[in-house]
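re: ur question from yesterday

yeah so i grabbed the chain u mentioned. its 192 aa long if i counted rite. heres the sequnce exactly as i have it in my notes:
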Amino acid sequence: MQKEFRGKERNEDHALFILLKKRDKEAFSMIYQKYHRYLYSLALKYLKSVQMAEDAVQHVFVKLWESTADIHIEINLKNYLYTMTKNYILNMIRDHKEAVSLNYVNAQIDFPAHEDILREVEEKQMYEMLYKCIEQLPPQKKEICMRKLKTSDSNQEIADKMGISVHTVKSHYQESLKILRSYFQQIKMLLL
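ran it thru and got these structure tokens back, copy pasting raw so excuse formatting
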């Protein structure tokens, strides 16, 4: 199963790379979405600076866009991006020893773990997407979902406040959950 997944990923990357060579901006955007977090984590691990890590990733993607047309060999996109990022990091460490050393010292201070910050950002983004989707629901479904999320009201209390039956609350909520699940499944498919 793992080999099959890697093969699928390689084929997808190959197709994206071919489109990128043709200057396809959508393919570039998909590559960026797919590998940005991976490269950022790699850069942050070694540079210990959010700004330097962001600069590294930006540099790598700019170089990818600029140099893709000149690449005439078969490449593994993930490995290629990894190597570009690693080389940039090594150059940063060589050229900015003092700054990187200071970043390491500062990293020893007890700040929230980077993974915790990333998780919080991801959760915030998920909630934003959830609320955007809820905004698209029909008025009653939207109101029921918002009451479920923002209050501790029971189905009966929601029904009483909205002047509808408990059965209507339950059925609207169930239908809303199906719509929301479908929406998030679509997003998941886009990100894979």
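noticed a couple things. The chain has nine helices and no strands. also The chain has a mean pLDDT of 80.
anyway ttyl
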